[in-house]
């Protein structure tokens, strides 16, 4: 396992960690000034400005875009709505290419409102990802399927384990082209009894595209907006990273924390300082 001490160049900050409270150009400057090697911006921030200008700023500061967050949800009630969702993702992949992103993070969506058809939603996800493969190939941006904790199956993601994501990857990309892989986020997968085996299988197939860290608090008050700072919760972060890196992942370690009642009330530079410390000492 890599030693992160003194190696913030191996670490990235997902801009959600700072709460989206400032314009993206200011956030980019903060992250670079704090010494991190990478950044993962969100679409809503990028689409508020000029993607080419953001890309120039990121390159000038020698930052790597560890991932571009995130996809439009795929499942839809009608074929027209489904096709529109696919097209929105095609446009986002093009922006990801302008930014030089290492991957386009896909939070695939939940069950269509008013429906109980879980299998149908999962089938739409597989179809949509298959349809996006040509765009990923054209622009050289891998798709990173992010399994979310099962508590999000209804409204955010019907992919809930690494094993599920692997099945989709192998279905749409049997030749293992490198154009579709998996974003391993500890918040969503730490609980999985098959985690080690699933990570090993994903690594053997060359499918681990991104790695996200935070912590699961022992007494979580909000399942979306109460993630913990690394070291404040119950996840054995060194063990998970060791597993991911033994499986062949050598990309950036990206911090992604949604924390409305804690971190997002603190000074952004203070948040970055704590992230820097915890990445080097407890991850």
UniProtKB/TrEMBL annotation:
<dbReference type="InterPro" id="IPR050312">
    <property type="entry name" value="IolE/XylAMocC-like"/>
</dbReference>
<feature type="domain" description="Xylose isomerase-like TIM barrel">
    <location>
        <begin position="28"/>
        <end position="267"/>
    </location>
</feature>
<keyword id="KW-0413">Isomerase</keyword>
<protein>
    <submittedName>
        <fullName>Sugar phosphate isomerase/epimerase</fullName>
    </submittedName>
</protein>
<dbReference type="InterPro" id="IPR036237">
    <property type="entry name" value="Xyl_isomerase-like_sf"/>
</dbReference>
<dbReference type="InterPro" id="IPR013022">
    <property type="entry name" value="Xyl_isomerase-like_TIM-brl"/>
</dbReference>
<dbReference type="Pfam" id="PF01261">
    <property type="entry name" value="AP_endonuc_2"/>
</dbReference>
<dbReference type="GO" id="GO:0016853">
    <property type="term" value="F:isomerase activity"/>
</dbReference>
């Amino acid at each position: 396992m890599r030693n992160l001490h003194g190696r913030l160049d191996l670490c990235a900050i997902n801009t959600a960690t700072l709460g989206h409270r400032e314009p993206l150009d200011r956030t980019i400057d903060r992250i670079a000034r704090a010494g991190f090697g990478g950044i993962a911006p969100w679409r809503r921030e990028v689409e508020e400005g000029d993607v080419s200008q953001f890309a120039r700023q990121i390159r000038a500061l020698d930052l790597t875009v560890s991932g571009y967050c995130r996809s439009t949800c795929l499942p839809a009630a009608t074929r027209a709505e489904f096709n529109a969702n696919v097209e929105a993702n095609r446009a986002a992949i093009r922006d990801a290419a302008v930014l030089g992103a290492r991957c386009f993070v896909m939070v695939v969506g939940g069950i269509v409102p008013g429906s109980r058809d879980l299998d149908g939603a999962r089938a739409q996800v597989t179809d949509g990802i298959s349809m996006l493969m040509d765009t990923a190939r054209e622009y050289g941006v891998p798709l990173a399927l992010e399994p979310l904790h099962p508590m999000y199956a209804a409204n955010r993601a019907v992919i809930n384990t690494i094993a599920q994501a692997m099945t989709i990857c192998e279905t749409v990309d049997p030749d293992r082209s490198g154009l579709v892989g998996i974003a391993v986020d500890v918040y969503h997968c730490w609980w999985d009894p098959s985690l080690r085996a699933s990570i090993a299988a994903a690594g053997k197939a060359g499918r681990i595209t991104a790695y996200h860290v935070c912590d699961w608090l022992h007494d979580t008050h909000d399942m979306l907006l109460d993630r913990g700072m690394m070291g404040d919760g119950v996840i054995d972060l060194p063990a998970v990273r060791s597993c991911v890196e033994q499986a062949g992942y050598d990309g950036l370690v990206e911090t992604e924390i949604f924390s409305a009642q804690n971190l997002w009330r603190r000074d952004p530079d203070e948040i970055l300082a704590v992230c820097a410390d915890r990445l080097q000492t407890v991850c």
